[in-house]
Structure formats: structure tokens, C-alpha cells
Amino acid sequence: MEVFTRYNLLKHVTSYCTRPGFLRDRNILNRQYTIIISHKRQAIRHQIKVSTLVCSYSSDKNKHFITFEKKAEALKDAFEQRKEKLKDTEQKIRLKGEEFVRDIKHQKEVTGKKLKVKKEFIIKDILETRDKVKEKLEEVVERENAFTIPNILCVTRIVMSPYLGYIILQDNYNVALGLLVFAGVTDLLDGWIARNWKGQSTKMGSFLDPMADKVLIATLFITLTWQNLIPLALTLLIVGRDAALVIAGFVIRYMSLPPPVSIAI
């Protein structure tokens, strides 16, 4: 082999190992290759035998390489698909975020408009209420004139009640009858004047009128009972009823007051 300093190895026949029926042809143990060894002036034709183990090794290596390429392609495709899905998801999230921001801005504008309308309505209502209260207060101030004709008539009956009792105790029944008629006429007049004349109806008058009647009736019954003209039981019934009505009026008034309730002395 030292004579040959240079040679070229050429495959004359393709590898038998790549043939599809290689695994079935197990009776073939080797494959002959023709190797042409060339020198400057001569060539030698020689046959060599290559073990099938080498062919099997080469085939397995190619199969593994092809499998690896397929796996790489599959991974690449999966990565690309995943990348596209991520892009789609990112786009959807961006669109939803923009839509959410638009909804918030729209809701803010709508809420601002509603608040503005409510604010204007509340201010208008406050102004109207203030004007109405002012008018009511002016009317109340105008009406609450204590020196009205009905109030004077009620006070007259209250002041006259002790004198009526004194007249009855003195057995002067004719004068007492005249005083009772006068009290009845004044009772009719104060009610009619308060209902028909402007500015004559007052809260004080609504309190004085029933009070004058009760004071007059109580004085009349007590003095007549003292004179043994009316039974005591009847007097107690009439006076007790009037007293109960007065007490009930105070209680109802106290319960109707809004809290906190205080009693001024």
C-alpha cells in the first residue's frame, strides 16, 4: 500500500442498505463494493466486503435525524401557532381595555349630566321652598295679631266667669241669666268673625275659644252645686269631662311635636 501515494475512492454501486427490502432480505449478509484505486500510471480493481452492521448503523442514524427534523418542524409549527394565539389574545385584551375605558368615560359623562340636572333641580326646589316658607311666615306674622275681635271676646268671657259665679252665689239669678245670654252671643260672634273676616283667625284664638267655654261652664256648675240646685255627681261628670279633654289636648300636642322635645318655663 505504500506504493500508492494517492487514491480516489468512488462508489460504483449505491448503498444497498437504503433499499426498502433490506430488512426482509436477511439472507444477504454483505454487499460488495467496487473500489477503484488509481495511481499516476495504473489502477487496481479490488473487492471489499462491508458488514451489514455498518449499513444498519447508517440507516438508524438517518432515521433519527429525520425524526429530529420532524420534531423540530412540529415544535416550530406549535410555537408559531402559540405565537399567533398570543397575538390574538393580546389584541382582544387591548380591544376590551379600550372598550372598558370608553364605557367609563361615557358613564362619567352621563353621571355628570345627571348630577348637574339634579343639582339644578335641588337648587330650584330650595329656592321655591324658601319663597314659600317666606310667604307662609309673612302670612303667619300677619295673622298672629293677638288683639283681634274674637280674641277679645274670648278673654271677656273668661274674665266674666268669676263674676257670674259671684252673682249666682248672691242668688241674683236674673243677672246671671243675662250674663249667660251675653256669653252665648259672644261665643257665636267670635267664631263667625274668625271664619269670615280676613286676619281675624289666629292660633291663639283657637286655644282661647274652647278654654273660655270650659271655664264658664265649670264656674256655672260649681256655683249651682254650691247652691244645691244641681247634684254633685252631675257637676263632677261635667267638670271631669272638661278637665280630661284639656289634659288630652296637651298630651296629644306633646306627642305630635318632633324630637327633641323640651319644656320651656
Architecture overview:
- The chain contains five helices and two strands; from the N terminus they run E-E-H-H-H-H-H.
- It has helices at residues 52-143, 149-169, 173-196, 203-226, 232-256; strands at residues 30-38, 43-51.
- It is rod-shaped and about 150 Å long.
- Among the domains are: 16-61, no CATH class; 145-256.
- It is mainly alpha-helical and 265 residues long.
- Helix 3 (173-196) packs antiparallel against helix 4 (203-226) and helix 4 packs antiparallel against helix 5 (232-256).
- The longest helix is centred in the middle third of the chain and has 92 residues, at 52-143.
- The chain starts with 29 loop residues before the first strand and ends in a 9-residue tail after the last helix.
- It has a two-stranded antiparallel sheet with strand order 1-2.
* Shape descriptor: rod-shaped
Rg, alpha carbons = 63 Å
Unreliable stretches (pLDDT < 50, length at least 5) are: 1-20, 22-58
How many β-strand stretches?
Answer: 2
Total helical elements: 5
Fraction of residues in H or I helices: over 70%
How much of the residues is beta strand, in percent? 5-15%
Structural class: mainly alpha
Average pLDDT reading: 73
Distance between the termini: 145 Å
Tell me about the largest β-sheet.
Answer: 2 strands, antiparallel
Strand order of the largest sheet: 1-2
Helix-strand topology string: EEHHHHH
